[in-house]
Design brief:
The structure holds 2 protein chains of 2 kinds. Chain A has 2 helices and no strands. Chain A is an all-alpha fold. The longest helix of chain A is centred in the middle third of the chain and has 22 residues. Classes of the chains: A mainly alpha, B alpha/beta.
Chain lengths: 66, 481
């Protein structure tokens, strides 16, 4: 029960809980790692698009005409 | 009729071959058999051959011989064998798109471009290898192909480029006089440069994509890879034109008019010195500088330029990833995507389904500004010149970026992002072999405003009259003709 934990036990539990995501990331399969990297790449790309100062009245390039 | 050709025929231009055919030096069937034998024998050595179309090709060759007997002239491609990237359909034959999940896919119809070349009397003899799904999702190494890494005829330890790998290698090795490739962002220009062949990326919409695999509805283009700018002009004339089967067709036909090219003194060449002095790899700089000197002596006005400042890579990546993953949604959600060869590509395709509509639209809104910026750039400049790739072909057997030394960052952006930028704006581009870095070919690229192919081809043909880089042959030995 939590109320019976000593301060040291509580700190230990917190440390163990914090270690779980790190351990899980080490357990990821190569496919999961590749997908995580692809998502990170998408996030970086999205940031670059967001950083571009786009005038509000710009319509998209539909229908495409060269 | 006794065969009357030597090894030289395999490295002749399409125009030269057709003229010799019409002079009755040999029959179209003899010619087709000789090229088929060479393609089937040597093609697998470069991982360039996806499928031989022997039966269909010999039937078509017989038709050409019948036409020639009665004097029916179908133009400068009549009787000329050629190959197509394995994403163009030929009814009744496999179209695998270079990818394991489509290994048993058989085409139900024939692509418009192949129908048009059939009408011109050209003879399609084979489907040529490619990077799986034309690289959709982003691939990590040259091995991302059903046939294995495309091997470069100049050095089989080097890559032939992607994604039209087999098309470039087959033309370079003399297995076909010309081939069709496709480009979404660099897939005609890059392999053309690495293999030392002449490649033309047409204006978006000039050539119908009906019967071709879709990677990106708003970016895909089909174009020729050949031995000369002149051949590219004749091929584009035959494959261009409106097509109701392609809803994004521009509805225009290209007419190759080399005799009516503008006087060069009325044209302005735009280039960025930084591309040639800093961005290019050191071993390739002498070839690029010499090529620029040749162009400078042709009488153009010259202006230094640089690309407008846009996030070209981010825009291109978002558009291609969003459209590519939508195009392959069934493959991804069914789980068959796992059969692809490249883990990065599998992950990239899956992640692409998660791109938000707002991000795709933001990329397309920036794209509109890029198109506008190019319109403004081409007010003062007739065409742009830059190295097609900054160096020669990388290793065929290592992941991209492996073994590269840290690259020097050039002092300005020059025209270094012209491949993604030009593709976003739908501009035509012509890659011309311009020399060697060591034993490997390198190339320069000319880019102009939409529908200015005649200007690019006139400049390219003039460049090729003054140089002979496009006539160089790799060290290939094949079966007796």
């Amino acid at each position: 029960m939590a109320e019976k934990w000593t301060r040291r036990e509580a700190a230990g539990a917190l440390l163990a809980a914090a270690a779980v995501p790190a351990a899980r990331s080490q357990e990821r399969t190569p496919q999961q790692r590749a997908l995580a990297e692809a998502r990170e790449e998408l996030a970086r790309t999205r940031r670059k698009l967001q950083e571009f100062p786009l005038p509000e009245d710009t319509a998209p390039a539909f229908v495409f005409r060269p | 009729m006794a065969k009357n050709f030597t090894d030289d025929i395999f490295f002749a231009t399409a125009v030269e071959i057709s003229a010799r055919l019409k002079a009755k030096e040999f029959s179209c069937k003899q010619l087709t058999r000789a090229f088929l034998k060479r393609l089937e024998t040597l093609g697998p050595q470069y991982n360039a051959l996806a499928a031989s179309l022997r039966k269909r090709a010999l039937e078509k060759a017989g038709d050409v011989d019948d036409d020639l007997k009665i004097g029916r002239d179908r133009g400068p491609l009549q009787g000329v064998p050629y190959g197509v990237k394995d994403l163009l359909d030929v009814k009744g034959y496999p179209s695998t798109w270079g990818a394991q999940p489509y290994l048993r896919r058989v085409a139900e119809d024939t692509a418009t471009v192949i129908r048009k070349l059939d009408s011109a009397g050209a003879v399609c003899i084979g489907k040529l290898a490619m990077v799986e799904l034309a690289g959709g999702g982003g691939y990590s190494s040259p091995a991302a192909s059903l046939q294995g890494p495309g091997l470069n005829p100049w050095d089989k330890s080097r890559w032939s480029g992607g994604s039209s790998s087999g098309s470039a290698a087959a033309v370079a090795a003399g297995l076909v006089p010309f081939a069709l490739g496709s480009e979404t962002s660099g897939s005609i220009l890059t392999p053309s440069a690495y293999c030392g062949v002449t490649g033309l990326r047409p204006t978006y919409g000039y050539v119908s994509r009906y019967g071709a695999m879709t990677l990106s509805w708003t970016m895909d283009k089909i174009g020729p890879m050949a031995r000369s700018a002149e051949d590219c002009g004749h091929i584009l004339q035959k494959i261009s034109g409106g097509d109701y089967e392609d809803p994004l067709s521009a509805g225009k036909t290209f007419y190759y008019q080399p005799k009516f090219a503008r006087e060069f003194k009325t044209l302005t060449l735009g280039f960025a010195p930084v591309d040639f002095e800093e961005a290019a790899e050191e071993t390739a700089r002498p070839a690029f500088r010499d090529a620029l000197d040749v162009l400078m002596r042709m009488g153009f006005r010259v202006r230094e330029v640089e690309l407008p400042d846009f996030p070209y890579g981010a825009v291109t990546g978002t558009v291609i990833d969003a459209e590519g993953s939508a195009s392959f949604e069934e493959l991804i959600t069914s789980g068959r995507v796992e059969e692809l060869a490249d883990a990065k590509q599998i992950a990239g395709l899956k992640a692409g389904l998660e791109i938000r509509a707002a991000d795709y639209l933001r990329a397309m809104r920036i794209r509109r500004l890029i198109q506008q910026a190019f319109r403004e750039l081409f007010v003062d400049v007739s065409f742009l010149v830059t190295p097609t790739r900054m160096g020669p072909a990388p290793s065929a057997f290592e992941p991209f970026g492996q073994g590269e030394q840290e690259k020097h960052r050039p002092r300005s952006r020059g025209l270094q992002a012209l491949i993604p930028a030009g593709n976003l704006a739908g501009l035509p581009a012509l890659s011309l072999p311009c020399g060697f870095a060591g034993h490997l070919p390198v190339a320069i690229c000319l880019v102009a405003r939409p529908f200015w192919e005649n200007t690019l081809l006139a400049v390219g043909a003039a460049f090729q009259r003054q140089t002979n880089w496009h006539r160089r042959r790799p060290p290939v030995s094949g079966p007796e003709p």
